[in-house]
Amino acid sequence: MSQRPLRRRLPRDWSGVLLIALALVSFTLGVIGFREYLGPGEDWSEVIYQSLQLFFLNFDKAPDEDVNLPLQVARFGAFVTAVWAILKAFFPQLRQRIRRWLRLRGKACAVILGYGPSGQAIGAALWQRDCGIRRVTAVHRTVTPELAARARLDGVLLIEGDPSDPRIMDRAYAAKAERIYVSDPDDLRAIDTAVAVRQHIPEPAKDIRVVLNDSAVAAQMAEASAAGFLGAPGLRWFSVADETARLLIADARFDRFALESGAERMHLVIVGGGSQGEAVAVEALLTAWRTGLGPPKITFLDREIGSVEARMRKRLPAWFAESGGAALYTGARPDLEFRECDAGTIDIARDLCFDGLRERVSGWVFAMGDDGLNLRASVVLHRAVMARHVDPAPIYVRIPTGHVEDAPDLSASPLGLAHTFGSIDSVIARSALLAEDPDSVPKILHEAYRKAEQEMFGRLSEVWSALPETKREANRALFRHAVLKIEDFGAVAAIRRDGVPVTEQGLAETLRRVDEILAYDRIDRGADARAWLKDGATLAEEDLRTAVLIRDAALCEHNRWTVERALAQFVPTARPDRALRDDVRRRHNNMHDWFDLGDAETRRYDLVMLRVLLSQKPAAGQVLHKAARVRTVFLAVDGTAKTCIAHVSGSGAAAGVDASELHLHLNARDDPASATTLVPAVMRCLAPHIDRRKQRPPARIRFDFPRQPGERVLALANLVAEELRGKLPETTRIDAFWNWRAAGSPVVGVVGHRDLTRFGGIGPVTERLRQCFMDLVMKRGVEAMVTGYAPGADRAAIEAWASLGLPNPSLLFPFAGHCSEGKRVFFTENPSDATAETTIEEEDIKKIADRSMLTICDGHIGQAGELLRRTNFLVFVIEHGGSTREGGTLDTLRRAEDIQREVILIEPRL
């Protein structure tokens, strides 16, 4: 996740260089001038002495002599040099005051009160990012040479003094600044400074932003200060932990990984339950609600887990099952689990505290306060994943404040299982903290929400400026969930230049048409959308799916809103009765199951935001996909021949049709000797799928790893990813999908007839098997195949499997023996009936499968039994109606059905 700003070299002190240059030029011109002035016969030592004397003593000119031009220039240059040197050496405060005064002339000025890690990051980001600020002054208690160097690096004028001292604020011309940032490692001291600033500059319109460390304090500070507690009204409160968490969740997309891996819900494991871990948990719980997923699960691992749980219970009482009807209903209650664990000593493969965490986890976040411990524990987990003790899932390691600009990314590869996050410079540079208006997107969407509300219900809610801070924060959380809402509706989200997500315009009209005819109080859990219509209304067949999507979107939004209200300390009333609502005691009557809300209007309110999002117009020239379409491409690479063959899955978007996502399976039977030499071949295969002249570029490219990749295959994938980044728009997301299973992935077996005449021959069967294998790899994670080697279906399966670059198959032979030359041979039929086609020499088999993957069975019955024992799925190339013999295709199908093995039939097409 870390996107570190570009590295910069420390700028040269040009004032010193110019001073030296001016002195040298003045001295040289003085030597030339005095040589002429004193005459050619004068000794050189006297000429040099006279030239040096210009810098310290007065030049006595004879009344009857003219001063030549070089000497005249040297006289004035020496004077300027001397004055400049005196000011630079003995009057730095005057110099600084002049710089401050010049810096504050005009607009676009900012003052940073507190130049610690956060303040330094703000200064660096303001220098690099176009955020309406061009000149920055910072105040810090103690200015060290390192801080001064950092300030010079970022073009910041650094002043030594107490940031909360009004006299220092006057020296920094804070009252004239466009924006004031307050930052201090001590949150209480930061609040003290903020109060002092507000008292010194009482203008309500003054833009003052306070950066705190503690997530919980920042979340509640605006409400507390408005009620007369700590702080001062009219300030904007930010938390580094919150900003880090928002960027992490937006980048990591744990919700998407849960959906794509087939999990029942998003399950996030957070190692470290401090302020950063708590902020990540809160952000994940606010933005992880997706249709198709249950309530999210968060597992905390910490040495002091009791205090972590107590703090979460105190902050979020409605998230836990309490007596008196105060608990959330089941559909909106996240599963919060707390486990005591010492991350520094844990044995992931064997420790009981990891039971239940070794499979189907959506992501790992290491957010302890110790950088070294975060790194060490994450490496241990990564090693356990590679050793197949734990299912793979994205790993995110926090690298917090200590490194500042030089925070390491830890990985030079764009595709990897482990990532870093939380580098102060990268977090600040990307956060809303720097924006001219941090609420610009929420304001736009809130105004659109008001218009949609008036259209749907005939009333207008409050404007943004009239909203209390609690409602503003609720709306901010709602809008951060915007992209997920668009995706849940089967659309593709793109970001407009102003930051607003947009999608294809036709969806808005479809939603509006179906929404207008739905009677929301009739919607139930069933699948028959026709029963949900208003009296006399009819629903077209193509709109049935839209009606179900509307219901699911409303459910999802209501669950998310309920959790957000719980975060704001609200608890549900005993029943959904408006008369029981009490905003002072924070009891809300709508924090109940959506189906228990009998009022149609209340239910329908959960669709307003989706209607707003689908109605946003794209920017001029912005390219949008009309629908979410996935194309899957299998790339089989041959390291020896340096070739690549591509096969497109028929279950997704066909080649040449716009695809919003491109899923790439990069397969090699053996690790290639050199990944670099294969890149051109792979890019030639991908060229038709990324050609902008023929189709819209994909919004996302996903490298799929349904089996653990070898070192060189992973290197090849990273090289291809880098090439793709150079050929696709910056908005195209490129990431990896890790979906193998530590316990072992499913195995497919193939059984079929020898005579394929009714199927159209071996070619059509091979293609149908290839498509079948691609589906099984994509949807079931299959990574191995077992079959025989008989002519017909078996050999078609081997060819189809090999064409996808998948691992060598396991082969079963019913008979084995030796030929007349003494060589070992294998038979696909009884040796007495063997022909040249059914007799295979051992050397030929080695080209197809390793010796360890070869099994000799006891006849055809034993071969069928071995196939059933080894496989999870069975593909039958079968024609019903023929004779049945023991161990044959029809007999094996019967046995598979008897043991309830999942089967896939490939039959002749009529």
UniProtKB/TrEMBL annotation:
Keywords: Membrane, Transmembrane, Transmembrane helix
Transmembrane domains' residue ranges: 14-34, 69-87, 108-127
Keyword Kinase applies: no
Protein's UniProt keywords contain Transmembrane helix: yes
Pfam families according to UniProt: TrkA_N
Domain RCK N-terminal residues, every copy: 111-222
Protein's name in the database: RCK N-terminal domain-containing protein
Native organism: Paracoccus aestuarii
Top-level taxonomy: Bacteria, Pseudomonadati, Pseudomonadota, Alphaproteobacteria, Rhodobacterales
